[in-house]
Design goal:
- By secondary structure, this protein is α/β, with parallel strands linked by helices.
- The chain has 13 helices and 8 strands.
- Strands 1, 2, 3, 4, 5, 6, 7 and 8 form an 8-stranded mixed beta sheet that branches.
- α1 (about 20-30) packs across α11 and α2 (about 45-55) runs antiparallel to α8.
Length: about 300
């Protein structure tokens, strides 16, 4: 039975590969019978949120990820090549030297082209996970957050191509080519909204459950080059914006993803479990935040389930 009272919104934040932990959160919400009335995603949150809102189960999304990582398409992609340079796995001296050179090659390339990744590589990733439908056709109302590089405005997609909206939301500056749409040049939603709490409120959510997959800062921060300064400045800006927006959430779920780089695919298998753990640790807070009739309905469902055993 669907209630027409207060709406519960899920705001899924960006974070590249770290966003796969969103799947674990969705797993737990489903297990607990917690209905979500709308989903808003930024970047990786738009990818996972869009796939889920379109009707795919967390298990189906996980299976697709496993299949994609083992596919020849991914094996031969620039996405994997770049990800290996940031991998946290132990490496030989030769591999470390090779990664050092490649890391700088990709960084320099971004100064002479619109992105490090070929447009086709990332579009194929989006197409693999996201069906070719209009956003208005999703089974759960969905919004994807992007940023117009011309005006600096946050752009929230509520209609139009789901694939195009997710691609625009995931277009990390320098790594993925911006998406041109009309007068807009669209890039990652995380530029203006790392965890889209405000957008969820604007879409009609009365209760917002936010999931942030921010990277844990290392104990020692190395700042020696201009690149280090730029990178660190961006981290500080992002963290400040995120802290401010998260103040508007009713519940904040924080999967402990450590210092995993957003393009490091080496620990994908662990991320879903990390998301599940974080969601379970937040269950009391989640249930407390839900409207009273939701809590009563949930309790009734659990009692019926216990009786049926």
């Amino acid at each position: 039975m669907k209630w027409t009272g207060k709406k519960v919104g899920l705001a899924l934040g960006g974070g590249g590969v770290r966003g796969f932990s969103h799947i674990g959160v969705l797993n737990v919400l489903e297990e607990e019978g917690i209905d979500i009335d709308l989903i808003v995603g930024t970047s990786a949150g738009a990818l996972i949120g869009g796939a889920y809102a379109s009707g795919q189960s967390p298990r189906e999304i996980q299976s697709k990820i496993d299949a994609y990582i083992c596919s020849p398409e991914f094996e031969d992609s620039t996405l994997k090549s770049i990800g290996l340079t940031f991998s946290s796995e132990s490496k030989s001296f030769f591999r470390k030297a090779q990664n050092f050179v490649m890391n700088r090659f990709w960084f320099v390339r971004a100064f002479f082209t619109s992105s490090m990744l070929p447009a086709g590589d990332f579009q194929s990733l989006i197409n693999y996970f996201i069906p070719d439908i209009d956003i208005r056709e999703t089974k759960i109302p969905f919004r994807a957050v992007s940023t117009d590089l011309i005006t600096g405005r946050k752009i929230v997609f509520s209609e139009g191509s789901l694939r195009q909206a997710v691609l625009a939301s995931c277009s990390v500056p320098g790594a993925v080519e911006p998406v041109r749409q009309g007068e807009w040049i669209l890039a990652d939603g995380g530029i203006t909204s790392v965890v889209p709490v405000y957008a969820a409120r604007e879409a009609g959510a009365d209760v917002v459950i936010a999931v942030t997959v921010d990277r844990e800062q290392p104990a020692f921060i190395n700042i020696e080059t201009g690149k280090d300064v730029l990178y660190r400045a961006g981290e500080i800006t992002t963290s400040t914006l995120q802290t401010t927006e998260l103040e508007g959430a009713d519940v904040i779920i924080r999967p402990q993803v450590g210092d995993l780089h957003w393009m490091d695919f080496s620990r994908v298998g662990d991320l879903i479990k990390i998301g599940e753990k974080a969601a379970r640790e937040s269950l009391i807070e989640i249930h407390t935040s839900l409207p009273l009739y939701r809590r009563i309905t949930h309790l009734a469902k659990r009692l019926l389930k216990i009786r049926g055993r």
